[in-house]
Amino acid sequence: MLKFINTCLVAAVLASAFILYSLEHQTRTAERDIGKLGNAIKDERESIKLLEAEWSNLTRPERLQSLADAHLHMKPVTQLQMVEEGEIAARVPVEPIMKLEEDGKDTIGDILKAME
Amino acid sequence: MDHSPATSIDAPDSGAKKLRGQNRLRLVAMCFTASFLAICAQLGYLSVYKNLGIASEPVAQYEPRLPRPDIVDRNGRVLATDISVASLFAEPNKIIDVDEAVELLTAADPALDAKMLRTRLSQSKKGFVWLKREVSPELKEEIFNLGIPGIGFRYETRRIYPMGRLAAHILGYVDLDSVGIAGIEKYLDDQGAIYTASLADPESRTTTPAYTTIDIRVQHAVADELAKAVVKFRAIAGGGIVLDVETGEVVAMVSLPDYNPNATDKNLSKSQQNMMTSGVFELGSVIKAITFAMAFDYGTTDLNGRYDTRAPLIIGRNSISDYHPMRRIITVPEVFTNSSNIGTAKMALEVGLERHQAFLERVGLFDRLTTEIPESAKPLLPKRWSKIASATAAFGHGFAVQPLQGLQVVAGLLNGGLMIPPTFIKRDKETARSLGKQIVKPETSEKMRYLFRLNAEEGTAANAEVPGYRIGGKTGTAEKVVSGRYVKDKRLSSFIGAFPMEAPRYAILVMLDEPQALPETYGFATAGWNAVPTAGKIIARIAPMLGIDLKLSPEDREKLEKQARIEAKKALVKAN
């Protein structure tokens, strides 16, 4: 009888030790993952910031203006090219002009092609 | 039991049967019990008592520093941010092959000096040497992938301003320890510390950006046109502000010459400071607008009033005369559109000395205007208020003020009489209204709007007219004071206006310091010929960005078409 109880107890000790250590192992892995992810997030944040700063630097109005002056054949919009809100309906052509390219009238498309 | 002779102190006379060494055993047992009790007590103290909260606070607390908030414009474009920059270092005592390391490094970055590298890496006793500070991210990646032993990177945080010079005066800058020492940067650390704290999230150790009121596109348009004007008119300095009339938000503020906030050595000269807030200037006739509003508000005159400008106004030993003499009796709108000093001085004298001072006090011109930008100057007013002081102050002589403060007052006069303190941190309309102060009656404001519009249609500000955007404005040309005297050929020309005039949304100020006369301005160097057309060009560029609706009358359309034809012809002539 006593032998049986002792065997049971030893088995229980072994089982609980196994559970305990596997739990600890899991916790450690989770902790390591958290740490890794935390670092990855920090790195990503850092690079987002850097990219944002770079984007901001590259899209400086000053720079865009000089690039536009050098490479685009465009001019600032004048008041004559703008249409008042109420007038839009009156200004829309009845038949939409399609197939600009076939007619050879696609000026913006030509500019884009020339750039390529 | 053994009855051996007693060797210990326990006397055999007691008769009790005792084991040998029983007392020693007892002593040892007591020692053990005592130490276990001590351990238990300590355990209890640490686990129970301390957690009851009776114990005192921790001696030292580690508080990680929160990152400095980014500064962005009103549309979220980054104006200032912290980036971590890598610096390249070496541990010479760990380097195995100096020649190989030098070769690899110079191949990766040709800018590195091979000789310098060799001498630094050969000091095999040293544990640490810098090779290059602030390495670009791409280069860092490349060197990192080389995997040279004993070569590493250290990271430092650096504040950068990606937009460069643009808005440098508003943003200010930080010192080497990332502490703001000018502009918004200083505000974030000083008066605005509570605001800064509200941006931070201590849990995730992040901060949301500080939204400024600046629109970087408008800022650039103002800076660009102003820079062109400064060059064209050979002025020594120039400045411009665009202010949202309804919220007091400063949409753009430029002061030229400016500086690059990214430069590490900022040895700023006096001319590079922000003239728009840290300097006071005599704005000249622009101040007449305040006198007109005062006279209307006190009811001493109205739009039908008439003033005799045939002879100079004599007060004591001084005489006041006009720049464009009319030599007849003129109406109040004519006084405004011809910028008559005599007429304006007479209006101020009708109001009276005390009420004149009271009105200037009401519009805040006796006090320093403070905004988030710490650099601000107090207005300079006449020391003694006499009849002559009041008469000259009426048209802006002897009366110097921060340009931003001048614009604030004029914006208040035009928007229905509510003067709203200007700000550089985004705010909504309700907050702005609650901060505002009614300075004149709405009817007075209506009259002022009429005068401003009239002046841009046919008065001194006619050159600012951009068809379709209903601009209104007032010009000012002040002679500069050099060593206590007004100098005739040193002028400060300015324009203050607003658009669209029927319900102003934005107020604008343009200032040029010592502009020169040009052949195309027919030898004139007054505001109407330099500051005014500059303002017109700025408005034509920014009005579409700011969403001002265009209203072209048939005459406007005709005028524009004519202009377009002339320009097309010019271009044709040029092409041929």
Main attributes?
heterodimer; A: 116 residues; mainly alpha; B: 576 residues; alpha+beta; five-stranded mixed β-sheet; 19 helices; 37% helix; elongated
Count, helices of chain A: 5
The number of distinct β-strands of chain B equals 20
Major sheet of chain B: 5 strands, mixed
Mean pLDDT of chain B: 86
* Element-level helix/strand string of chain A: HHHHH
Shape of chain B: elongated
Secondary-structure content class of chain A: mainly alpha
Distance between the termini of chain A: 92 Å
Radius of gyration of chain A: 36 Å
Mean pLDDT of chain A: 85
Given as residue ranges, the uncertain stretches of chain B (5+ residues, pLDDT < 50) are none
Radius of gyration of chain B: 38 Å
Residue share in helix of chain A = over 70%
Characterise this structure.
- The complex is a heterodimer of chains A (116) and B (576).
- Chain A is mainly α.
- In chain A, 73% of the residues lie in helices and 0% in strands.
- By secondary structure, chain B is α+β, with helices and mostly antiparallel strands.
- In chain B, strands 1, 2, 3, 4 and 7 form a five-stranded mixed β-sheet that branches. A five-stranded antiparallel β-sheet of chain B has the order 9-8-20-19-18, sandwiched between helices.
- In chain B, helix 12 crosses helix 14.
- The longest helix of chain B is centred in the N-terminal third of the chain and has 28 residues.
- The N and C termini of chain B lie far apart (141 Å).
- At the A-B interface, helix 1 and helix 2 of A face strand 2, helix 8, helix 18 and helix 19 of B.
